Amino acid sequence: xxRIRVVAAVIREGDKIFATQRGYGEYKDGxxxxxxxxxxxxxxxxxxxxxxxxxxxxxxxxxxxxxxxEYDYPNFHLSMDCFWxxxxxxxxxxxxxxxxxxxxxxxxxxxxxxxxxxxxIDQIKNEL
Length: 128
Description:
The structure is a single chain. The chain is of the alpha+beta class. The relative contact order is 0.28. It has one domain (about 1-125): Nucleoside Triphosphate Pyrophosphohydrolase, CATH 3.90.79.10. A hairpin with a 3-residue loop joins strand 5 (about 60-70) and strand 6. The protein has helices at about 45-55, 115-120, 120-125; strands spanning about 1-15, 15-20, 30, 35, 60-70, 75-90, 95-105.
């Protein structure tokens, strides 16, 4: 099975986290934590900083690793390093996503999370 290694930013501001809705691909319209693939020679943290700048025109500070999610989709295995992140500079401009929301502990279950991302929700709730 094909293996894809990605990084995801759980951008936190106070008691809220930032979620994005996919605007393309097989999983279009599903909700996820923004991020993307790690390129050759990049650390996960460098990849995440680059991806958030490309996708959201925003500079972030990558903090502590929350977890590495291993998830088998029908056509590939996803390995996703998920990090706590904070905003440094930028306006979270959506360049590739349909929509975005700030979610708190009470509203975090109100979106249709992608299967790999939903496995992280309980850990995030415990931190909020």
